[in-house]
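User: structure tokens for this one?
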Amino acid sequence: MEDTESDVYFSNEALTKFLNAQGRTIEKVICHLWHNTFDKNSTIEIIDNVELLFLDGKKLTIGCNAMGNGMDAIDFDYHQTKIEIEKEYGGKIKIFAVDASKTKMWEDVIGKQLKIVKLTKINNLYKADSLVIDFGEEKREIQISPLDGLIIDYFEED
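Assistant:
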């Protein structure tokens, strides 16, 4: 039996954003990275969110939810967030926007249509621990890790 009490689920707003992104063509992928230099001997970089920019000017940004315990389709203002983070942490944590469109992970999906965002469904709710973005022949899985931020990988059907 599933333990749905401790699971985190996508909101109806997030589900609507996923639906609205389906059928759109990818123009660019931006990854926003946190660069943590609190410990000079152990700099940490994590993917905070991934932004899918579509040819029609729309975007879908996938990141951590407000509680930090699951994923969400978020509204993200890079410039405002950058200012707030650098001020709050005195420059010890910085956020960078990286155009990942030409990386090995993303180059094969540029120009392709997002067919569907696949989620895990339990009792009519959709778990916010991972998702698969399906571009037909190309698929990517995005998961969340409490210590590592977003983890993005190729996805192969079983």
